[in-house]
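Handout for the seminar on molecular recognition.
Each group receives one record of this type.
Step one: identify the two inputs.
Step two: read the structure output and locate the region that could contact zinc ion.
Step three: write two sentences on what you found, then compare them with the reference statements printed after the record.
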Amino acid sequence: MNDSIYRDLASHSTLSRPLGTVIAVQANFYQVRLDQPSQATNDQETFSLLCTRRTRLKKIGQKVMVGDRVVIEEPDYQDGRGAIAQVFPRKTELSRPPVANADQILLVFALENPPLDPWQLSRFLVKAESTALSLCLCLNKLDLITEDQQQQWQQRLEKWGYNPLFISVMTGQGLEDLNTRLRGKITILAGPSGVGKSSLINTLIPQVDQRVAKVSGKLHKGRHTTRHVELFELPEGGFLADTPGFNQPDLDCEPQELALYFPEAKQQLSTGNCQFNDCLHRGEPDCIINDNWERYDHYLTFLEEAINRKESRQKMGEQESSLKLKIKNSGQEYYEPKLESKKYRRRSRRDKHQSLHGLYDQQSLAEIAHEDEDL
Ligand code: GDP
Ligand code: ZN
């Protein structure tokens, strides 16, 4: 056998170059969960390594994100250290939160306490649909409503195009089904505060508190900043992305695209064409979308918002400013620095599409700037 082929094979053996998944990123350090425990020590403790990124990767502008599949070089199992030598191509990439290879979004709402607000739900759904990741809608606190009420929600949401999973973290109802949907996948947890997301994480991953403290240590410092993402490993395989509290997500999609993020409107669009190909479906002649669906009002309101947003963006764009104008739900305007200015940071269309930006609380500009430096 040719020497170099032999070297290649040897260098790809799991023993010398273990594979893993990046579960946390902070500053220039990456916590990597190894696929296999270290055979060197046969010790559970060495399931994860704190890694740096090889200079070679920095030179080619190869970013390392939470969720990335990586090859580790020179693992030191005793000290729990290593270096990331290679990053595998990503299946998906979200920019906000920065997560690679996510498979789906788990959108959690409560049925009661706080009561389910259709507008808020709609807004989160539209935002989630705009990422092109698959979506699992989960309604928690089933213990607080009657069977009749459950049926009413079921029927109502079916008309919206969704088949929600009803659960109660408190009684354990529905959690087995949920586990099945999460198994082997990277799932991003989203939803407003108070709906039971932390309770859900703690139930699905009973060891999470100790584990976080142990694994992350110093890394854990930044976990309450809004862009910080951490993956928690599920007992049955797969990861759950822990994300900080959400607020009302802003809808920064193209007005033209909005209807596609409503399954019940998308369905109508699939049956033919509107007379105008730039139709916004608000009463134009021979529009294929009728007004006979519950969320049509939501559509019109969100559309207005998307149009306003686009106009403001265009105004700012003409000024070629280093800031971009954003508008809060309240209509209040504020500026955000353009962070995409560096070449490698420019977002692809798909990436932009998949941005969950806005599912997060408004964050301080300083924090964005700081964390972007780290990427
Ligand atoms: P988060 O803000 O989404 O992380 O929500 P938390 O996990 O902090 O939960 C908010 C509140 O809802 C807490 O008081 C929980 O005990 C409660 N809670 C969570 N799940 C359930 C449930 O299934 N039923 C009921 N009745 N309360 C729940
Ligand atoms: Zn139309």
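Reference statements: The chain has three domains: 3-90, 99-242, 255-337. The longest strand covers residues 19-26.
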